[in-house]
Amino acid sequence: VIDIRKLYAQGDVFTFDPGFTSTASCESTITFIDGDKGELLYRGYPIDQLASQSNYIEVCYLLLYGELPDKAQYDEFSYRITRHTMVHEQMHNFFRGFRRDAHPMATMVGVVGAMSAFYHDSTDVTDEWQREVAAIRMIAKMPTIAAMAYKYSIGQPFVYPRNDLDYASNFLNMCFSVPAEPYKIEPALARAMDRIFTLHADHEQNASTSTVRLAGSSGANPFACIAAGIACLWGPAHGGANQAALEMLRTIGTVDKIPEYVARAKDKNDPFRLMGFGHRVYKNFDPRAKVMKESADEVLDLLGIHNNETLKVAKELERIALEDEYFIEKKLYPNVDFYSGIILEAMGFPTAMFTPIFALSRTVGWIAQWKEMIGDKNQKIGRPRQLYVGEAARDYVDIAKR
Ligand code: ACO
């Protein structure tokens, strides 16, 4: 690792690194990835242990404060999150300004960005207490906002959060309850939902997290920064891949069609890619995909969904791709988005809700990284350089002479 800053200050070096493939933008103590081993640690704890033994609220505490909470700390943190789940009543009017057929991610970018117009006591980034309140508010309100975006898109009344429910159950209830028939919360499903939140909670300097840090480096308020992160996450090469992956699996439809799509993915003249496959950092199995695959089997079993054609296509596609020279040579493995859509669809979510669920899960990671950045003594405004390849200086020509 070369620390280029001193050389740069002396005018000795200038690096060109499109896509930041080999540039560290910060130091961080939050998440560690070993892409060759397929290892992911939150504050040193392996993701598979956290997914199976911990829960999302505990993971939020860990990501934000660096250590697992004791019982009293856990209870207090959980209480604070629960007490902040409601959104300002006037935000309901804000939702109603959107078209019903808006993608829930479009609504979320707008609503989260607008939070700085509602919560004036948590926008001063120089004040530690305000930063803390903003963090709690964001984690608490994101499920409410995502559920409201969903309810609005299907023309149903908003469902208020309930303080007697845990984080995942509350989200499921806000999405699936209707006044005529309260949603029956199945604890095993809530657990699976919670696991999906945990698996997506942070992933070091990915595109959306880097966006949040870059926006925050100018001193922008946390709500504006998170809105920027949501916008970035939406793209199909990033969080939008979970929706794209399920749509791809449905398009493939049956296992006999898989070779045709694998051939297309390998054809350099065809823009088609296997969605949910490949990763900038993992050159081995994404450890989150492993947990997600097991969870898909469990959830479908629990819901009595047997012989699910999409899951069959996914597993066979994985098998064929992992034996194919092209995917072996390029080290392309299923990523977190490959199986998550199958679980979410089985739970009753439409594909348009997949990326909002990713966004609400990732909010804690964005906030933890944002807080870390503000506390970093090396923090500077993010300002990449460029290699200018345009015209040399030339004189203006009057329009009549062009
Ligand atoms: N299907 C077919 N070929 C692929 C795929 C894929 N899914 N992913 C990468 N490749 C090929 C590329 O064509 C390229 O081939 P080349 O060297 O012959 O040009 C090579 O593998 C390297 O790919 P890059 O795009 O250069 O790798 P990069 O690290 O920039 O991109 C990315 C990573 C964006 C995730 C890419 O693998 C991809 O587009 N995957 C599909 C979308 C997806 O699943 N995104 C979710 C990522 S995880 C997340 O954000 C939560």
TrEMBL record:
Q: Name one Pfam family in it.
A: Citrate_synt
Which keywords, in A-to-Z order, does the entry hold? Transferase, Tricarboxylic acid cycle
Q: Which domain of life is it from?
A: Bacteria
Q: In which pathway does it act?
A: Carbohydrate metabolism; tricarboxylic acid cycle; isocitrate from oxaloacetate: step 1/2
Q: Which SUPFAM superfamilies match?
A: Citrate synthase
Catalysed reaction, written as an equation:
oxaloacetate + acetyl-CoA + H2O = citrate + CoA + H(+)
PANTHER family in the record, alphabetically?
Answer: CITRATE SYNTHASE (PTHR42871:SF1)
- What family does this belong to? Belongs to the citrate synthase family.
Query: What is this protein's record name?
Result: Citrate synthase
> What is the source species?
Allgaiera indica
